[in-house]
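Example protein
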Amino acid sequence: MKTRELNEEQDRFPLARDVAARAGVSTATVSRVLNGTPGVRADKREAVLRAAAEMGFVANAAARALSLRRFKTVGAIIPNIENEEFIRAISALQKHLCEAGYTLLLTNAGYDLDIELREAIVLLERGIDGLMLVGDIHQPELFARLQRHAVPLVQTFTLSKERDCVGFDNQAVAHRAASYLLDLGHRRIGVVTGLRKENDRGGARVEGVRQALAARSLSIHPAHDITTSHGIGAGRDALRQILNAGVPPPTAIICGTDQFAFGVMIEAQASGLHVPDDLSVIGFNDADYAAFLTPPLTTVRIHAAEIGRIAGENLVARMAGETRVRVTEIPAELIVRGSTAPPSLTSRRD
């Protein structure tokens, strides 16, 4: 190993001796504190922990520096482990990483950026060589730590102006779905999505619907704009809330997932409404069951496996020191099936 390479690698990572110098203790004391060894004076323990936190010290950084980060592991943090699209992407990512000799470490953040940051720190402590995230909104400290430790990042399911990404334009595809409904003659269009806070994908999709409506001097009625948790039951609850709002119901609903759409369709039937005669429904993801519902679900098809595969290619190349295209767009498609149709004359008059 060349001395220059070792020095450059060590410069990226605070070492135990750096923490010791800042805390005013020996490297042996630093080791004892970080290993949880008893018998260290409280003031010295506090000084070591404070110095380590201030410097962004990762427990195995010295080992990583000496081995030039050859742990051959990649981390991935997804917002919802129950989301079929994320699982498809992770499966393809893992397959490509495995073929390249890497192991994948997967965690779930539950759409909570603080949890995501905590999980990222843990993954860094495990010596990951690269990281995959979903979306473009993350804690600034996460980016700072990745940069400090020279760990390449690729973001997925979105496009980014600043960072490497593999995904699609969420706002544009939602705009397309809304425009399709408007072209069919719908004027009252509702939306049902998951949490939008700290979720740039959900927010962008709603914004796409709003812009399509605004272009035709229309808007989403507040009673038709529902944010909920996740799952089929949440979709049922959302439509129930819309129908009980005391205003004319929408003639079409765009859902943030196919599960929401499935729930909306079930509740519509339970409420005596016919899809698509009384209510058109569009989902998002093109789940395995979407084409087999009654009627088959119109939905947005996301090429999640392709996103995961290319994210893996991006990371493997960059971990090898190669330059990759920063933005890879994989357009989503509107798949028209039987759950959408022009609004009936009765529903237009409601």
